[in-house]
Design goal:
20% helix; alpha/beta; Rossmann fold; 6-stranded mixed sheet; 30% strand
């Protein structure tokens, strides 16, 4: 169920203007609540259960995709019952914008990848480009098997890859909270919001 927080026309949702006020920490007036904190917690529980079942008896390297994946990985790892090592990679396509651009490798994959099962953890499957490129690089570095887990998966036909595990589905709108940002903020929210369609 989608609960409207409030609706207000907002014409500038394409990119972040330089005038975006640093002191603004209020949730945008044109945001809709998609999932509340309890629903998100249940999604994390289910996501962890699915991973624990699929990787029982294995010891994967969990690669967190910075920045958004750090929130998801932190909440997920504490629920995992399997032994695992933690790694990370820092790539970006959005750079605080609401539309993706070219992929920037800010930090290469950190962690022992060769001959390992690697679980990539990110906040969202949107277009899928970032996850696909990370998976390719891990295979080039000798990962024996790669799996992908996200908290949120968008319902859209244009994705270039799939995920093995996901917690929530959202419509093809700009979403934020639980690791996902809006103009660089709100990753720390326990709920998931979407900008209202104009």
């Amino acid at each position: 169920m989608i609960l409207s927080v409030s609706k207000m026309n907002m014409a500038e949702s394409k990119d972040i203007p330089n005038s975006w006020p640093i002191e603004s920490n209020e949730i945008p007036d044109n945001a809709d609540l998609l999932y509340d904190a309890d629903q998100v917690n249940c999604a994390f529980d289910k996501l962890a259960d699915d991973i624990n079942h699929a990787l029982k008896g294995q010891s994967p390297l969990v690669v967190c995709v910075l920045i958004g994946g750090i929130v998801v990985a932190g909440r997920l790892i504490s629920r995992l019952k399997i032994p695992c090592d933690i790694g990370y990679v820092h790539v970006s396509r959005y750079r605080d914008r609401t539309r993706g651009g070219d992929l920037d490798w800010l930090t290469n994959v950190y962690g022992q990848v060769e001959n390992r099962v690697v679980l990539i953890v990110d906040d969202i499957l949107d277009e899928g480009t970032t996850l696909l490129e990370i998976e390719k690089r891990l295979k080039e570095q000798g990962a024996s098997r790669t799996l992908k887990a996200v908290l949120v998966k968008k319902r859209r036909p244009s994705v270039v890859t799939s995920v093995d595990f996901f917690g929530l589905e959202v419509p093809d709108r700009y979403v934020f909270g639980c690791g996902m940002d809006y103009r660089g903020r709100f990753r720390n929210l326990p709920e998931v919001y979407a900008l209202a369609e104009i």
